[in-house]
Fold these 3 entries.
Entry 1:
Amino acid sequence: MTDFFAQYLGYDGGWFVATLICILLIALPLMLAVAMIIYADRKIWAAMALRRGPNVVGPFGLLQSFADGAKVFLKETIIPSSANRGLFLIAPILTFTVALIVWAVIPFGPGMVLADINVGLLYILAASSLSVYGVIIAGWASNSKYPFYSALRAAAQMVSYEVSIGFVLIAVVLYADSFNLSAIIEAQRAHILGFLNGFGFNPLLFPMAVVFLISSMAETARTPFDLTEAESELVAGYQTEYSSMSFALFWLGEYGNVILMCGLNAVLFWGGWLPPVDWAPLYYVPGIFWFFGKILFFFFVFSWVKATVPRYRYDQLMRLGWKIFLPLSLFWVFLISGWLMLTRYGVGS
């Protein structure tokens, strides 16, 4: 694409236009996906509670998310008189932006990635950790007790589970021998028994896949880990004082992060764009469809857990992160590294 536009605009201009088009090809469908995923979330909850869910606006209620978006867009943005005006407005923008920039290194298929950098996994870890700043700034700038308390909870929760996520990623990198996400996916081809695609089928890595799945729920503050938005204690948490599009940006950022974590579960452990089985006819299905199918499966798991599992107490949340996941993931890193030294590099043979 860059070469095509470079014929008319020069290399620099062609690169800029081509990159801008690629960004829009990712960002615009992602916004549509967020709207549809909110609808799917509500329908799954409703089905599990034996309710109908959204069913009025549009056929089968498909336009409900767009109606909600139009409603918040037309409302007035109210800024509390005692709030820090600048930071109050920046916080939701920061949260939404961070949810978008991480998608730059996510491969949707062979060669279908905006930036195929060698340190893609480190980029995701660094960029996603910035999301805590939007929450902290929102809680502090609101100058209200409930949002501030929620921001403190969010900081502790996100940092706690990023530690275990970091050790899980080390285990994946050891097996794949690369930080590049495309290389990690290719390393999963025919990984088990010569025909199963995915690290998740590996008995050594399956526990890490479970830890990563649960930690990703905690990282995105989904039920049962939504202590930052515990309405019975904190009203609406860090976004209590927000209204109109400021509130909507938090909403979009949250679901953008949820879809991202579903995608990372697919990429890191379940083969990304690869079919589950390394069988030639399955490769006729474009890889992007396999990838989206896996994202939808993990999103169903996220919604299933939210609809059925009660919220943790905060001490239970911290105990799970620090006393169970951290030592477990740390031990598993030693176990996997020892196994690879023994089998792959022949130490001790």
Entry 2:
Amino acid sequence: MSNTLGGINLTVIAQDGLTTLLSEFPLINTFTTNFGGDIAQKGEAVTTRIASAVSATDIGASGYAVSNVTSTAKTVTLNKHKGFVMGFDDGEVAKGGYDMLKRTFLRPAAHATVKAVMDDVFALVDATNFTSVGYNSTAAAFDADSVASLSQVLTDLNNPQEGRTLIVKPALYTSLAKDNAIQAQYASGTNAPLTENLLPRIHGFTVRQYSDLPATVANQKGIACTPEAILIATRLPALPQNWYGNVATATDEKSGLSIQVREWYDGNEGKQKLSMSLLYGVSVGNPNCLTRIIAS
């Protein structure tokens, strides 16, 4: 017979955990995602498709002639099962209740889970998978004009204007925030760069800073991309068999993202344990949809 967390509803914990996870998820939504609430085993694969670039034709000269379109199947192997596990002793459960769980477990769990996914995503960004370098200079020189040049690089690579994102280390984000051309955007109705250190869209890019961006190449400080550069697929881990604990699932209706929360009592340790986890995989999508930023 399983124990419970002081009468706490595990489904409520799962749903609140998902809400917290989604608040940490903007970076992941930068890329092409395939979220699913169905159950999968580690090692299974998800197949998705990305469209190849097309060129416009002169209909006035040649009429409504059909042009060929191509989509490429991309397989993402669900080879990663990561998350966060927290243990509470009997006294903590009795004294703390749900507020303690939210404060101690949910936000660290969400942050740890998102960071695990992002670490695996950015591990793909190297000189082999993505050859384009759109900026190679100093961090101090990174400004709005640099972002305009990155926009040109992606356009030259035949990327659409929609959905472009710039993800940079804090040093480059700060350089942009100090740019007088960006601070002067108060004239267009926003003073967020000056009052909140929140940058507006710059030359078609949504700008995000991420301090844990790993340098898979020396001095790599960021990327400019469109969603099809990297593919992310997630599924729910398979349900445990002949197990004495409880399992709850929460699914976001808008994105389809699902997480699994498990609860069980470890008699050997005398702890009530909670886990939040995802089964997922990441893969390179279209290499021409990303250009790297090198800054010393």
Entry 3:
Amino acid sequence: MEENKTTTKETTTIPAKQEQAVSVSPETQPVTRPPPKLNKSPLHGLWALTNRDLRKWYTNPIQLFTSLIQPVVWLGLFGKALNFGSFISGSGIPIAQQNAILQSYFGTTSYFSFLACGMLSFVVLFTSAFSGMSVVFDRRFGFLNKALSTPVARGSIIMAKVFQSDGRSLIQAAIVLVIAVILGMDISHFNIVGVAGAFVVIFLMGTGLSALFTMLALRSSDWQTQVALINLINLPLLFASNALFPLKIMPTWLQDVVRVNPVSYANDAVRQLLIGSTVHLAPLPVDFAVLVGFAVVLSAIGIVLSWRLLSK
């Protein structure tokens, strides 16, 4: 028997191709840029979030119109119907004495002008109340979770709600003031400094109130609860202030409440600046000091609470 010879497969070796060296000039080399640094500024994203909420408002004219109905109705109906001057004119008192009586109670001879200044705080109060509702809806629709996942500081999320409310309040207050002038508000004391100072007062008041209502909504996802809180706080702040009636005609216990209500100091400052009211709760510097403290303290508390309570 012939021995089986093992067959071996011939392996063919393919010579490797030599790679051609490509000479790259320094001009053609790709530029490697470092990754962008994370913006840790506390103001990062503040304008973007503020503008987002404002855009939802000014692109919806129906919402703007409905927000002005209530103060205009109060000006046109309540302000004109409740004419305190007519109560005195039928008593046979001379005109000069009638004006002196009105001046002693309202700081002006026109109750409508007195009420028109109070309506500015009315607008700010109710606009600020719904800054908290924006937080509730952002949480329900998932936007708040997305914002919390970004490098934007939590304090910026809160202050964006406050500043968008301030912007809305200033615009609406300007419109109400124009309507009040058309309806007969006394403008004899109007000047640039006074009008500008009145809007600074509105800004300070709106900042403090918006921070307050935003704090109340930090952990809330139920809009019904937030509406209940708005009604619980807004009406006492309005009626326990000098927005509608002067301090002199109120009972003693209510006068004490009015003196600790920041809305009263806003009304007092606006009346001194716009209509030259001679009857005031406090001197103008005191009014500003109270409002600055109110705005700064509540804003600071809102930012601190956002660090602890604002979560996904």
